[in-house]
Amino acid sequence: MLYNIFIDPFVQMVQMPDLLVQTLWEGLVSGVLYALIALGFVLIFKASGVFNFAQGIMVVFSALTLVGFYEKFSAAGFSGHAAAFVALILTAGVMFVLAMLVERVVLRPLVNQPDIILFMATFGITYVLIGLGEMVFGGDPKQMITSELFLPSGSVDVEMLGGLVSFQKIDIAAAIIASAMIVGLALFFQKTRIGRALRAVADSHKAALSVGISLNQIWVIVWFAAGLVALVTGIMWGARSDVSFALEIVALKALPVLVLGGLTSVPGAIVGGLIIGIGEKLGEFYWGPLLGGGIESWFAYAIALLFLLYRPQGLFGDKIIERI
Amino acid sequence: MFYRETGQFKQSYAADQAVFPILQDRLGLAAILLVAFVVVPLFGNEFLLASVMVPFLILSLGAIGLNILVGYTGLLSLGSAAFMGVGAYAAYKLSTIFPGVNILVWILCSGFFAAGIGVLFGLPSLRIKGFYLAVATLAAQFFLQWCFVRISWLYNDNPSGAIEVPARTLFGLAITGPSATPVTRYLVVLVIVVVMTLLASNIVHGRIGRTWMAVRDMDIAAQLMGIRLLPAKLLAFAVSSFYCGVSGALMVFLWLGAAEPSAFDIKLSFLLLFMVIIGGLGSMIGSFFGAALIHILPIVIRGLPEALGLPIAAATVEHLTYLIVGALIIFFLIVEPHGLARLWQIAKQKLRVWPFPY
């Protein structure tokens, strides 16, 4: 038994390195996508202190909106790449309107309330978005418009380490786009005027207000940025499987990623995503059969819990200083 | 006008510190109990008893359990449904292994199993706080739910993977299983819920409750005042899980009749959290308000189009329900972030000083 748990999986890893590479790659890709969802959380948490539970549903909602617009266009005889990109821009517009509404209707009246109340309010947003999305777009899974957005499909098989490792092209594209987006966000945060304002708000709401930064404006920008991240995430997830409300449960996986990396850290979200993604796939592949399979559903949380016991504020989170 | 303490003189400290110091409050409570025990079973139809009142009471009990943890001790938990599941599965196993013992004994005993598991998953709470703890409790939620699916011993290797409630009797009356009438089930649930609410009310108003509230308001300060954090927090986890466990056992035995592991999924955890927050954190009556709102509101919304004769498809109604419930959650939070219990308090205060504003 002990042999099966502690030694056998590693022996297998060494014996079949190609399988290991394949598993690692799959873990890496799902890790990148978890990291993208977590990134949306972190953006909002940093700037407004709101633990935005609705990020997961925003991913689904944006993807559904995109596909919905495209379907409307192609029904009107306007299809192809141009239509897809018009739909993309319109969806971004919808996310902007959503950000404004959230700020206006939910955040502004609830300013200065305890964290848990704001957390609950984002549950309300989640419910509204689920109801709205299902009513407008229907509950059936939809096909993401991958080829219209110039996203590749198919796979590349690489012969390495005495075996065949297959990489899905869409996964490679997802990894590249995600990295580009993370670099873009980092530049936006560090080099632009708005980025500087965002960092100021993240440090202290009051100090930011006192130097003339409009909190309301910043919140709209942040929710819009999170909406765009959600849109990209939605496209990537949608391209790998269908676009449906089942994604919602996947979004819950972003929570362990988030606490693992620390709620306030952008690099933390990425590192956390990779750790959870890879750990989960390795656990499922090598240790799962011992426990009867399906451990993917809770393994991520167990990893996060272990890390938290060691560092209660997450790997990159700000140290929690408590005063009386 | 009628609701004020004028002329009610207290002659002892005990009377002054009573939970309900005002006579009208006590009368109101007695009236509610009278309605619940006599009027509802006599005049309620089957739908009201079986689909509205029984679930409402059971969910209230679960909400009280969660409220002890979140509202009184300040430990955010998203795993309450899993603890309900532990209670349900424990009651099922116990009642099938020892069929001779009365089922009510096992329903109450199942709470202790839930409490044990709760303490185990509460251990990290000493180190982890806030939202980080919420995610730690999610580990409990998903791990326990996985156990309910994978460990076939828990459901006696039933091929469908569900637990089915055996028929059991109390004083010759069937209280569980298909032959139990809604009235008996309602009364059994009502008695358990009333007794356990009373118990919880006494716990939170006593020394233990004050310890919990001190921990909630600031745990370091509480520690400096001589409260040992680990026992206090673990006790909160134990009591909370006990209530959730009993509520879960009741849910399967007296409401659903059979349950699959998916009955205890994350949605139920969120639902309980809604009830606690909408009802009012740190309030017994708030747990009932929250359960009433969250459970009964969708039933009303679903029934409304039919009652009004509006031709709306069932699917649309379902989506509208989501939309309206979500909007109402936001609305209630904006109107009164401290929950319905606070609204109730404000209303009572206004009545007390009427016709003056204060």
TrEMBL record, chain A:
Predominant cellular place of this UniProt entry's protein: membrane
Name of protein: ABC transporter permease
Stored PANTHER family: ABC TRANSPORTER PERMEASE PROTEIN, BRANCHED-CHAIN AMINO ACID TRANSPORT SYSTEM PERMEASE PROTEIN LIVH
GO biological process: amino acid transport
A Pfam family recorded for this sequence: BPD_transp_2
InterPro entries, alphabetized: ABC_transp_permease, BCAA_transport_permease
Organism of origin: Aminobacter aminovorans
Family named by the database record: Belongs to the binding-protein-dependent transport system permease family. LivHM subfamily.
Protein location: Cell membrane
TM helices/strands, residue ranges: 20-43, 50-70, 82-102, 114-137, 170-189, 218-237, 257-278, 290-310
Topology with respect to the bilayer: Multi-pass membrane protein
Keywords annotated in UniProt: Amino-acid transport, Cell membrane, Membrane, Plasmid, Transmembrane, Transmembrane helix, Transport
Gene Ontology molecular function: transmembrane transporter activity
Residues making up the signal peptide according to the UniProt record: none
CC terms in the record's Gene Ontology section: plasma membrane
UniProtKB/TrEMBL annotation, chain B:
Superkingdom, taxonomy of origin: Bacteria
Keywords of the record: Cell membrane, Membrane, Plasmid, Transmembrane, Transmembrane helix
Protein topology in the membrane: Multi-pass membrane protein
GO molecular function per UniProt: branched-chain amino acid transmembrane transporter activity
Localization, UniProt: Cell membrane
Membrane-crossing residue ranges in chain numbering: 27-44, 50-70, 75-92, 104-123, 130-151, 186-204, 234-258, 270-296, 308-335
GO CC annotation terms, alphabetical: plasma membrane
Pfam families listed in its UniProt record: BPD_transp_2 (PF02653)
Predominant place of localization: membrane
UniProt name for this protein: ABC transporter permease
